[in-house]
């Protein structure tokens, strides 16, 4: 018998109409045979959220251009002065909603629809949607990115990004789309939530540097991570902490660790992940066999396999890599949203 949460989830995921995603060659293994400095990974800091049941779902879904978001906290990555269409779909009956930018009401374009223009300079803004009773129904943390054209000599404000592949190396420009801008990560904003369970700092490249750092992300990756996390919990695989072992990688860092040039991590829609509820920065024993090995990564992969059977999931289809443990790390899986299935397994 389906619970109310299950029914709501099924209803929401059918609304996830995603914009076209790029396609890449399969992401290769994360080569950890590099300098010791590159091998060190900071301890995972759990994301602590009170009253999670009340937090995760909004009372409506919000269509952001062509991406539909069912959560009451999400993020928006835009360029200066970029116009974004925001449309509430399936609102609560007999409820009115208003959009506020940093506390000021934004005029509707039509009922339940706004065409919102970002600030003319990079930085951060916040959008909130409130019902007529004044309750905040959804918060969007907006990151106005620094345009990619400002990267000079492979650097942005002294942060080493490195070169993306030259156009002559790209066989299909629709498949290999360079970032159009970068999110500035500072000590002040790194704790901001991008979605209910993931923070900005979890996706930054692991290269050594001071602040500011810069990151590029695509919204479908956040949706896929949240969907996987929820599906696991619904299938009695407890997930309090899902660790992003590797999110965005700059081309410079990607090259330094010996990974392939066209890694999905470089293009902002890939993550290497594992479940770590006990906080030891290793995969948990998900199959309850008394050991932590590739079988636990298989548990996570099996949930992805089931999601792939659903027609409503097709916009999130991508790579799935299963990795066994090594002396310096535990098992994990790789996921991305490249737009076609790619599968590999490395014991």
Automatic annotation (TrEMBL):
<dbReference type="Pfam" id="PF08291">
    <property type="entry name" value="Peptidase_M15_3"/>
</dbReference>
<protein>
    <recommendedName>
        <fullName>Peptidase M15A C-terminal domain-containing protein</fullName>
    </recommendedName>
</protein>
<feature type="signal peptide">
    <location>
        <begin position="1"/>
        <end position="29"/>
    </location>
</feature>
<dbReference type="InterPro" id="IPR013230">
    <property type="entry name" value="Peptidase_M15A_C"/>
</dbReference>
<dbReference type="InterPro" id="IPR009045">
    <property type="entry name" value="Zn_M74/Hedgehog-like"/>
</dbReference>
<feature type="domain" description="Peptidase M15A C-terminal">
    <location>
        <begin position="197"/>
        <end position="278"/>
    </location>
</feature>
<keyword id="KW-0732">Signal</keyword>
